[in-house]
Amino acid sequence: MTRIAIVGVAGRMGRTLVNAVQQDAEATLAGGVVEPGSSLVGADIGELAGIGKLGVTAADSLGAIVDDFDVLIDFTAPQVTLANLAFCAEHGKRMVIGTTGLDDAELAELDGYGDRVPMVFAPNMSVGVNLTLKLLETAAKALGDEGYDIEVIESHHRHKVDAPSGTALKMGEVMADALERPLKEYGVFERVGQCGPRTDKEIGFATVRAGDIVGEHTVMFATEGERIEITHKASSRMTFAKGAVRAARWVAGQGNGRYAMQDVLGLE
Ligand SMILES: NC(=O)C1=CN([C@@H]2O[C@H](COP(=O)(O)OP(=O)(O)OC[C@H]3O[C@@H](n4cnc5c(N)ncnc54)[C@H](OP(=O)(O)O)[C@@H]3O)[C@@H](O)[C@H]2O)C=CC1
Ligand SMILES: O=C(O)C1=N[C@H](C(=O)O)C[C@H](O)C1
To answer: What's in the keyword line of the UniProt record (predicted)?
Structure first.
């Protein structure tokens, strides 16, 4: 039985994760943490998640539940996640990290914990997106140097704070690696005004933020006369949460290292 704690337990993903852990026969909900000072400290995390009392209350720090859990699932914000990694390194805990929007310095800091913490870090925990990444690698290799323009379009709910989505960036990276076109050089993240025509090798990104869209990603390979589109649409956050719980069970048996969902799913 994997003892799982969830940080950010009152958030959109936090509440969905409570549901997902409860539904998993090989995992147990060992604790939940909300922001220090939150009015929700002490609330039953089952009630927060809308599934009734579970007898587990929201703590205001990881220190308060340190002896209760083995794996921490964190879908919060970059600086919160890094602070939690430091805690897990110090206390011999494992982590599943779904937080997106880390900048280069924050990613380097996260990487630095790879030799001290067994962690799964992935911008999208759904099986479908991770399979899509393999499809994109294949499509980019076949089409990218044959005159097909590559564009990534992502849509999310109006509350999302980072752009492009972590998933869109990961899709871009996978194709950039397959084509040996570094994303820092070939990624185009903004087109406005007299920006000139498209260059052949750029990988373009476009972002939509609207309403309650859970998460949609389309990659377009377009040339004169035809267009291929590979699309993934998430219609429920449960797809991410179930993936995260699967990752937590998997990482419970791993040594130190930074792993991806591809490792968890055996897709590498
Ligand atoms: N990898 C994946 O599959 C997925 C990744 N994500 C990513 O997960 C992250 C969270 O998304 P979402 O759930 O929609 O966002 P929310 O804003 O709904 O949730 C984040 C939660 O973290 C809490 N929080 C902030 N600081 C702390 C702290 N110091 N200690 C404890 N809790 C804290 C917030 O509390 P408060 O509201 O009080 O500030 C909030 O409840 C984003 O980066 C998103 O992109 C989302 C879906 C899937
Ligand atoms: O913030 C979200 O909601 C999501 N974030 C992730 C991302 O940035 O890719 C994954 C998913 O699409 C939902």
So the answer is: Amino-acid biosynthesis, Cytoplasm, Diaminopimelate biosynthesis, Lysine biosynthesis, NAD, NADP, Oxidoreductase
List, chain by chain if needed, residues with CB within 6 Å of any ligand 2 atom. 100, 123-124, 156, 160, 165-167, 215
Cα–ligand 2 centroid distance for 215 (angstroms): 6
pLDDT, tens digit (0-9, with 9 covering 90-100), for 142-179: 998 889 999 999 999 999 999 999 999 999 999 999 99
Contact 220, 154 (CB under 8 A): no
CATH number of residue 58's parent domain: 3.40.50.720
125 marked among binding-site residues: yes
Query: pLDDT value at position 145?
Result: 87
Whether 91 is catalytic: no
Res 262: pLDDT: 95
Which atom of ligand 1 sits closest to the CA of residue 38? 38
**Ligand with smallest separation from the Cα of 65:** 1
The range of the structural domain enclosing residue 188 comes to: 127-234
Question: Over the chain, what is the mean pLDDT?
Answer: 97
Q: Which residue has tokens 């994303």?
A: 183
Query: Looking at the 3D structure of the chain, how many domains does it have?
Result: 2
The domain that contains 145 carries what CATH number?
Answer: 3.30.360.10
Report pLDDT for 203. Answer: 98
Strand partners, 32: 6, 58
Give which of 235, 241, 258 is closest to 73, Cα–Cα: 241
* Secondary structure letter of residue 115 according to DSSP: G
Q: What is the ipTM of this complex?
A: 0.99
